[in-house]
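Example 3.2
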Amino acid sequence: MKAAAKFIPIIIMGAMVFNEIDILFAAFIGLIVAVFFCMIMEKKKIGDIMNAAVDGAKDGMYPAFVLMMAYALAEIYTSSGVGAAAIQLFIHLGVTGRSVAVVAFLASCALSLATGTSWGTYAACVPIFMWLSNIVGGNPALVFCACMGGAAFGDNIGLISDTTILACGMMEVKVADRFRHQLVWSLTCVAISAVLFYITGFTMGLPTTTGNASDILGNMPEETWNALREQRPSVITLLEQVDQGVSLLLLIPVVVVIVLAVKQVDTIICLAAGIFLASAFGFATGAYTSITEVMDLIIGGFGDAGSWAVIMLFWAMAFGAVMRQMNAYEPLAQWFVRISKNVRQLLVCNGLLCMVVNATLNEEMSQEAAIGPVIRDIVRDHVEGSEEDIYKLQMRNAIFTDSIGVMTAELIPWHTGVAYYMGLAIAVFPLYNFGVKDLYFNYMAILSVISGFVLTYTGWDRFVRMPMPKEPAVRLKK
């Protein structure tokens, strides 16, 4: 009974988020409740508990700097034309009713990787491709899910994604290391999903005549623009750049950042290089006319990160530290170890725990914050192996916490993510009545979640180059 009572802080957080109370306030209340329970159940002094909370928050310093750099880079990418180039790369292809979902999916993948945001990517892509689909005779539900799945791709793997950075911070692994560790698997999911979108369009008998995409933005209904101004105003600048046309050379900063990450360059250096190059291209194309504009964008990015993501990170780290002070997760960890026959099964249990918490809290950032430190400590406390091998296991945990958070956020009908995606789709394209049934064309999300579990459990992850230490190099402690 006492062990179950220690989960009350998480239950309270979940109830607050479910009732649409801001997650920052919910995290604050969760921390206060956790401190109270730690005092009562563990008979610890409040001074010692708060010192532990502060020490936990200190562990978030490096991820906080990465988050601020990432938000600044996203601002530069959006305003300099880099994001517009990612969309334009695909929008001028010969699009048909059968291929529009594939093009929407690939364009969303490119933009989300460039900007690191799923919600921003979706807001930029869904108006374009929903109305383009209407012109060429595509299927609205298919295009809707294509934009969702592509938006999740970059949010799950991108170097400048807040969820990626938070997951890596919780596991104490480098973002660039995780990016390399995950890249082949994620790209494989992209390739298979693109094929499935095309096959579905073929089986639906969608038309193959090419439509004229060049006038789509000019003919977009005023209701669509009003919805974007209200919900994602920064997207307006990006869409105007798409309408005016930008050079595909603006994709060079994105390519450079990815290459640096693959070469194992520190994440902050990668992001700084992206900011410098994108700013230089912005000056070259006339998007910027003074250094003051760039500085304002960077400072604005820092401010946006500090107003939510960084604060959330510190609350999360402090909350996790207090929960560990009262050993709240030890019974759960022991149960996982008892039912697991090997390390792979233990990691699968960690992933299932992430899924349950995400469905409970209905918000992927809060899921990562609540459960990230738990599954990190489960591996540290119950698995033996070299420091290098334990680090690889923590990278796999980082992938689980993030991919399950981001991808299942698009599949759980009552999730806040689904509410956003469906609400914006209805606002910008009122010709179709979107429903829960449409979510399950999201091949990218479904494939990512299922394959993550299957590859980990079976050992087939070696086929997508996700290194996993073998037993007995790593083994469960007796």
